[in-house]
Amino acid sequence: MVEDGTIMRGRVTVYSVPGCPHCIHAKATLSTLGVPVCDVDVNKHREIRARLKELTGHSTVPQIFFNNLYVGNNEDLQNLDPEQMERLVLSVREEPVPLDAPPVPGENSLDSDGEIACELSEALRNLILKLYSDHLSEDGKTVDYKAMSRSLYFERYCDLAVQLQRVELLSLSREEKLAFFINIYNALVIHGNLRLGFPKNIWQRYRFFNYVSYFIGGEVFTLQDIENGVLRGNRKGVAQLLKPFSRNDPRLKVALPDVEPLIHFALNCGAKGCPPIKTYTPQDIDSQLRAAAEAFLENDDSCVIDSVRREVKLSQIFKWYKTDFGGTDEKLLNWVFDHMGASQKKRNLQALLSEGKDDGCLQQRSEQHTFQFIRMTPASSIQYFL
């Protein structure tokens, strides 16, 4: 590795597990030193975990080595004085990896920027979910936000969120961006509620989603920027007159090239009809999102097919972002059908769509009458949950 023109001959080895906030914090600190970090996931390599306990006497993570010099855990790393740290960095810069260095599974164990970013977003999301569950009332209807904001876990979360400014966004793949920004969006909504309270009217919601933000990779991203700028390929949001990113905005380079309709079943803005909260990973992200959409459509609070009244009732999400699902009633219903799991609900929708096609007037009715898709009766329509 070359850092500022200097060849780094050694390495720092960090033994960690995915999503561990202390591991993320340690690796973020090491990244600022410009040293090559070899990250070893001890969940994947059990034999190394056993060997690690022999070397250190500890089974917790992270455990950190500069070449063959054992530093300790994250707290030990953070407590090093500047002179100690300088000597350790110098040893890695000038000395090759010795034969008695701690074991690694191979020479390709270096974490990419994308892996670090996604681990960070997962750690933040997992911490906020723990806070949420720890302070949820027994009936599951209210959250004690005041107690949550005093929690030590919330302090840890805030410390970890500061590390977002060091994320290299331009190096992330499409899959890494999806997982990273979905997790960050959902965490930021809860963080915003903790700091400002839950918005109670339209004006407060507008201010909330255009004000609550994180400093990520050297740029400020609000909730609107993340959803409509990055994840929807820089499209106008609800009640927005302009696109989030102008042509000269450096954040435009981070935006996904195309709208990703499935993100609507992963983002939770705190509204009643939002999808449930979970954590996403870049591995197999498309399958995860498709499964989320299928589960969302199976829920009767999100989608109801009334065969008697020839009516389809959908979540407001489909009304707000209709353009993402094709822009017309026909394309919207076909998208819904294509993303449903095998069920009686899907068979009912198929029957209604078939009747509409047999009429030969599906497109005409869709254009002439808002939300109507079957000619059988004027009551046949797409309705939306309030």
Automatic annotation (TrEMBL):
Keywords: Disulfide bond, Redox-active center. InterPro entries: DUF547, GLR_AS, Glutaredoxin, Glutaredoxin_subgr, Grx-like_ET, Thioredoxin-like_sf. SUPFAM superfamilies: Thioredoxin-like (SSF52833). GO terms for biological process: cell redox homeostasis. It comes from the Eukaryota. Residues 12-69 form the Glutaredoxin domain. Gene3D superfamilies: Glutaredoxin (3.40.30.10). The keyword Cytoplasm does not apply. Has a glutathione-disulfide oxidoreductase activity in the presence of NADPH and glutathione reductase. Reduces low molecular weight disulfides and proteins. This is DEP domain-containing protein. It comes from Cirrhinus molitorella.
